[in-house]
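Hi R.,

Here's the chain you asked about this morning:
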Amino acid sequence: QPVKAYPALVDDGDTVSVRLFDTEAEQGQAMWKGTRRLILRNIPVNPAKFASDRLTNAQKLALSSNPHGSVQALFDDCAMAAADKLIADFGGPAWDEESYRKLYDRVRAEIVDTTVRTVGQVQQVLAAWQACERRLKAVRSPALLPNLQDVRKQLDGLVKPGFVTEAGLRRLPDLMRYLVAADRRLQQMPTNVQRDTTRMQKVQEMQDEYAWLLEQMPQGRPVPSSVLDIRWMIEELRVSYFAHALGTAYPVSDKRIVKAIDAAVP
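And the predicted structure, written out as tokens:
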């Protein structure tokens, strides 16, 4: 009885190994992460350390308030996100030695500059996050407790260890907009409690629908990007409800989200 398996590089943390997978989707996801780890291991200059050395003490202090636990962990996250962007730009991952060497050379040439630019963007995102955190602590009305808990949960989902790589460089401007929108919501919340609550309940309905969809996905298999994108649609819905003047990346509504969920059910 023939058995079909799909080989791929696997990111083991500090090293890379080869493993067989049951599906092409698992193979593709593992190969991407394995290729990224192999490239970062072999680059002679540590892009995260280089980015750190370029910053002033004041900038490092501003970046020290992060969810990663240390500034170095944040820089490593930025370097991984930079590598992801470059691997995508240059057609990776690579499946043979010659293609890998070409990919490696092109990523190596740009990884340091891309990481430094990423740290600059992330510094702005973290400043917006810190502003939200301060405002969240300043609003104390017991009547607003469920609404404040909703913002707390949103912030914890947006800015957490590894958030730069998870969001990706192209989504950092969106992340900034989501945080500004949350800050504006907190400003308006005390004088518009009922309106805020009604809109929050709509968002939570969409989150429940999305949680149900994730439960329908095959266990142990990578979640398709079309499904993961719905999570960001819900963030855009929040912007449209709580900070409409900021604008959304595309037209969004609860009906559009439900339609996307229905289309994604396996």
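The chain is about 70% helix and 5% strand.

Let me know if you need anything else.
M.
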